[in-house]
Amino acid sequence: MRINLLIAFLLLGSLAVVGQGNLQFNQVLLLNASFPATYVTVPEGKIWKIESTVTNSTGGNTFILLDGGTYYLTNVSAPYLNMPFWLPASTYVGFGVLNGLSGKVSVLEFNIVE
To answer: Residue 5: pLDDT above 80?
Structure first.
């Protein structure tokens, strides 16, 4: 009997929990990465999930410039390092590739739904 009451209480309590919002898939973006870096801003009400990066040569290291720092997404010795990588709304970010190469960054964009 006590177990049933505990389960009922937990179920009812979980219904009262209010989240910060849900994510709804919006679109796939294929953004340019270059040297010097290509800068973009994550739109208001959106969240980006960086899935992967590619370059036009085996010597290319893709990176992002974020909050004054350089963070490598891929490099020759460790491909797909730190993937996926999430970016919140209003983030100003640069996508770059070393050695004067070019590349692409695959991004999933989500709407923030209240």
So the answer is: no
Q: Residue 24 corresponds to which tokens in the numbers above?
A: 């709804």
User: How many whole angstroms separate alpha carbon 5 and alpha carbon 100?
Assistant: 66
Domains of the chain as residue ranges with CATH: 20-113 (2.60.120.340)
**Cα–Cα distance, 48 to 42 (Å, whole number):** 7
Check whether the bond before 43 is cis (ω within 30° of 0): no
| Confidence band of 55 (pLDDT split at 50, 70, 90) | confident
Task: Return the residue matching tokens 């006590």.
Answer: 2
pTM over 0.85: no
Hey, what are 87's tokens?
Answer: 């970016």
Q: Please give the Cα distance from 110 to 10 (Å, whole number).
A: 31
Cβ 91 vs Cβ 46: under 8 Å: no
Residue 107: phi and psi, rounded to 5, are -125, 135
What is the radius of gyration, based on Cα positions, of the chain? Answer: 20
